[in-house]
Structure formats: structure tokens, C-alpha cells
From TrEMBL:
This is 3-oxoadipate CoA-transferase. One of its GO terms (molecular function) is 3-oxoadipate CoA-transferase activity. Its EC number is 2.8.3.6. InterPro entries: 3-oxoacid_CoA-transf_A, CoA_trans_fam_I, CoA_transf_BS, NagB/RpiA_transferase-like. GO terms for biological process: beta-ketoadipate pathway. SMART domains: CoA_trans. Pathway: Aromatic compound metabolism; beta-ketoadipate pathway; acetyl-CoA and succinyl-CoA from 3-oxoadipate: step 1/2. The lineage of its organism: Bacteria, Pseudomonadati, Pseudomonadota, Gammaproteobacteria, Pseudomonadales. It comes from Zestomonas carbonaria. Pfam families: CoA_trans.
Amino acid sequence: MAGLDKRVGSYEEALSGLTDGMTVLAGGFGLCGIPENLIAEIRRLGARDLTVVSNNCGVDGFGLGVLLEDRQIRKMIASYVGENALFEQQLLNGELEVELTPQGTLAEKLRAGGAGIPAFYTATGYGTPVAEGKEVREFSGRKYILEEAITGDFAIVKGWKADHFGNVIYRHTAQNFNPLAAAAGRITVVEVEEIVEPGELDPTQIHTPGIYVDRVIQGRFEKRIEKRTVSA
């Protein structure tokens, strides 16, 4: 059983093997459920020319935004420019290659990649610039475009709890893109708030089975709030 233990003791070990030019899949939505410490470690390692796949690119100075500051991202595949002014600036200046993808399509491209499905047809984006250069077919009188699945060299994921074997539970909306990214990475690294003993997780509550996970690390999280709303 010891050979199944996925725990690692440092962030350097967690991202061992990450090199320039790789594709990194990052869970999270805005600042909710982002693997903030793994992102910080990528910055520390200084890997460059990365292709990053995530719903958006964090905010200025936090999350994936810190990788933009150091010009570590060559291409961003995302559904939303978001609240990151530097992301918008680099996009408009042509400094950053950006592939904007409808949010549901992005989720399905990751899900398909994790399931071993190379491509799928979707009506979303037909008749728009999203469809340019893509195969079109008609099913039951409706036009669909062919979208290719996404996989990555690394997937960096934020979970709530995990056991030694890499079984992961996410908490509420912090689940978002995390299980999709986890399944589509060649090497999947999960940072969690708590690592529990084997058998403590209810099998029916596990969102990402350990078969998809290569490394697990317990971290401390700032959990910034992107936009705070209060009532009188």
C-alpha cells in the first residue's frame, strides 16, 4: 500500500519536471478554487513559454496574474479576460497569444481530454469567429463545429480534502474547473487544505478518484475575494 501514497513534502517536489514550453491546465474560476501556491511555485521556478489553460487569468498581482507579470505565459486558452488589466493589455498589444473559448466549450474540451475523446461537435460558436477554420457538420438540420479536446503536460488543482492515495473532495463552488483539469493532465498535482488518513473520506463523496492524481500536497491558502459585496 505504501507505493500508492501520493503525498509530497514540498512544492518543489510537487512540480518536479515542469519545464519551459509545457502546457499547464489550471483549475479555478476567478479567484475561487485556484491552486495559488502551485502558481506561486511556477513563478519561483521561472518556467517560460508556457501554454496555460484556465477559465481566466487571475487578477493583477495574484493567481495566474503573477505569471503574466514575469512574461512566463506565451499562450493563454481561456473563456474570459476577467478583471486582469495586464492580461487585457498584453492581449491588445499582441504580446500574449490568446485563444478565447466559450466557457462551456472549454469545460467540455477538458472533460473530453480526460476521457480520451479526441474531439466533439458543438453548436456553440457556429456562425461566429470561434468557428473559423473548423469543420462544420449538420445534424438533424442544425450546424455544429468540431472542437478538439485539451490535455496538458501538468494539471495544477485546488481541492478541499484528499487522502494519501490522491482521492479528492472539492468544497462547493470551489469545485468549478478543478476536476476537469485534474483528469486531463499527464501529471496532475493537487494542493489541498487537509490530507486525511485512508478510509476517512466517504467514497460516495469523492469528486476526483486517485487514479487521476500523481502528487498531493497540503498547503496554506490566502483565499482572496475577487469582489467583496456587503449589505447595509
